[in-house]
Amino acid sequence: TGSGFIYDSEGHIVTNNHVIADATKIEVLLSSGKRYEAKVVGTDPDTDLAVIKIETDEVLTLARLGDSSALKVGQFAIAMGSPRGFEGSLSFGHISAPGRNNLWGLQAQGIRFQNLIQTDAAINLGNSGGPLCNIDGEVIGINMAIIWGANSIGFAIPVNEVKNIVPDLIADGKVTRGFLGVHIDDAKGSVSEVLGLPDELGAVVEEVRPDTPAFRDGIQVYDVIRKVNGEPILDAAELIR
Questions:
Q1: What is the pTM for the complete model shown?
Q2: Enzyme catalytic residues
């Protein structure tokens, strides 16, 4: 089992890609007790997001989306879903860290874009795809992962990622991303010193692939990309996002 939330009145439901990947049949149970067969509308394995859809004349109650960019450590967090098949469960905790990246276990599963919310609200198998909400009941994240063997360390996809990706999944069934054609790393430590940077912000270019946009635009090895559209870049992971 997995979880999800209703995105719009047309019956689109947001969940995790790993919840519905390789499924031959998807059944959705609403809080009204009614069951519906669902079809897959679009998937994005890189972020572990997916959209499914049900056909119904039932008036659907839509989730209200919040703003994950405004989250702060210590804010209340409420995880909802079907942990271990216990439907309609709710757990309560806090935002314990923002912007978690480079979780190798998720990278091994093909989840390239992370920037995850860390929470100590209890998340179990079956919570995946369900909403992480703030104290006002707004969705601030999508529960997706836990750390095996740890206590109260769970992760959720920021809801602002949903706002960016889900419209593409509904319209096209996939996400089309930009491409530079470079291999990059953080401009930190000795790299920052050797290149004479004023700080450790940005992404240093380690390789430029031939016949790519970066190559054609003159980007070279040891260039440091520090801003995108005038906005400062913290590190390589932020540039990729």
A1: 0.82
A2: 18, 48, 128
